[in-house]
Specification:
Distance between the termini: 49 Å
Largest sheet: 4 strands, antiparallel
Protein name: Activating signal cointegrator 1 complex subunit 1 isoform X2
CATH architecture of the largest domain: Alpha-Beta Complex
Number of strands: 14
Structural class: alpha+beta
Keywords: RNA-binding
Mean pLDDT: 85
Number of helices: 9
Low-confidence stretches: 19-24, 28-51
Helix content: 25-40%
CATH superfamily of the largest domain: Cyclic phosphodiesterase
Pfam families: AKAP7_NLS (PF10469), KH_1 (PF00013)
Number of domains: 2
Strand order of the largest sheet: 3-4-6-5
Strand content: 15-25%
CATH class of the largest domain: Alpha Beta
Oligomer: single chain
GO biological process, one term: regulation of DNA-templated transcription
GO molecular function, one term: RNA binding
Length: about 350
């Protein structure tokens, strides 16, 4: 990370700087206690916090106030810190008492203080710490557009066979293990880390909201949304050190991209997708990815392997992978397989119903 241009994250309408590089870890493997100083509040933010009125604070006893809010238990160890250091620092700096459920237990966090300003400041700092921590955790779900249709799978298999027997046969790092599973072909809209049932329910409600207020109105205005896949490209600049090859979307109207951008913006607004310079809303169909052949621990490393894509790019510059229309949008669970070979769906909307 460039220290002069740190990554920014948004929490409840405020922009904060993340001052340390963050690596993802599996949400299922959170350490018992963890101390982190990767969040920072500008002085102005601290001064303005007590003017917020969007959290409920109630009287507690005769002289104090209390605020209660739900937090997924995966965050508890980060808020507590090693030897309770993070919690104690938050309490000291905000003049509050912060009650957190015991490790492994579900429950609410309670902030008690003698004035509202201290409680609001503590809540804001916990929010910021959770957002920074969420970036470290492995993504659990993603919004997807399934493209595992027969004719697209056939085109993909033809591409795979040609690469393995001809254009990529002598290319470094190219073998069958880095190709996508045909039944899992899809477009990714956005990645999420959903840590408990409450967050999953929130994501489902958001999908239904987007269907009613974004997707359906757009289809009514423009008609069926076409998806045309032609040509390939890589994510990196150097084709001799490629990590991903994807099929490009030929968007004549940009309507599909507009739908995707609006869906992502809504999920960012409600805090389920973290906006990051490392994530792009640009739609693409992943065909080859070196992460497919490595284990979970290696998958989180920045130093995973590459392959030489130069001959493949030349051979398939204009290869057509098929055409279809926007039919479904799923909340898909990562690293799962359903009965049809696609990812298990936490929820989905069928856009052909009622037409």
């Amino acid at each position: 990370m460039d220290i002069l241009k740190p990554e920014l994250i948004w929490v409840d309408g405020r922009c904060y700087r993340v001052l340390e590089n963050i690596e993802r870890t599996d949400a299922r493997d959170v350490p018992p206690y963890f101390e982190d100083n990767n969040y920072h509040l500008d002085d102005k933010d601290c001064e303005d916090e007590y003017y917020d009125t969007d959290i409920e604070i109630v009287p507690y006893g005769s002289t104090k106030f209390k605020h209660t809010f739900r937090v997924p238990k995966a965050f508890f160890s980060y808020i507590i810190g090693a030897k309770h250091a993070v919690r104690k620092r938050l309490e000291s700096e905000t003049g509050t008492l912060i009650q957190i459920p015991k490790l492994g237990q579900d429950g609410d966090i309670v902030i008690i203080g003698s004035d509202r300003k201290g409680i609001i400041t503590a809540r804001r700092r916990i929010n910021l710490l959770m957002e920074a921590t969420r970036k470290k955790l492995e993504f659990t779900h993603f919004l997807s557009i399934p493209l595992n249709e027969g004719h697209i799978i056939m085109k993909f298999n033809m591409f795979k066979n040609e690469v393995l027997t001809n254009s990529g046969k002598k290319s470094r790092g190219v073998d069958e293990t880095i190709f996508q599973t045909p039944s899992k072909l899809h477009l990714t809209i956005g990645l999420m880390t959903l840590l408990d049932e409450t967050e999953r329910s929130k994501a489902i409600e958001a999908l239904y909201y987007c269907n009613e207020h974004i997707v359906r109105p757009t289809i009514e205005k423009y008609g069926q949304i076409p998806i045309h896949l032609q040509g390939i490209d890589i994510m990196q600049d150097d084709p001799s050190e490629a990590k991903i090859i994807y099929a490009k979307l030929v968007n004549k109207t940009e309507v599909l991209q507009k739908i995707v951008d609006e869906i992502v913006d809504y999920y960012v607004k409600i805090g389920l997708i973290i906006k990051s310079k490392r994530q792009s809303n640009k739609l693409h169909l992943t065909l080859m990815n070196t992460k497919f052949q490595i284990n979970e621990e290696e998958r989180n490393s920045k130093n995973f392997i590459t392959f030489d894509a130069r001959e493949i790019l030349k051979a398939h510059e204009n290869t057509t992978f098929g055409e279809t229309i926007l039919k479904q949008i799923h909340i898909s669970q990562r690293h799962t397989i359903g009965s049809n070979g696609y990812y298990l769906a936490t929820a989905k909307i069928n856009l052909l119903e009622g037409l």
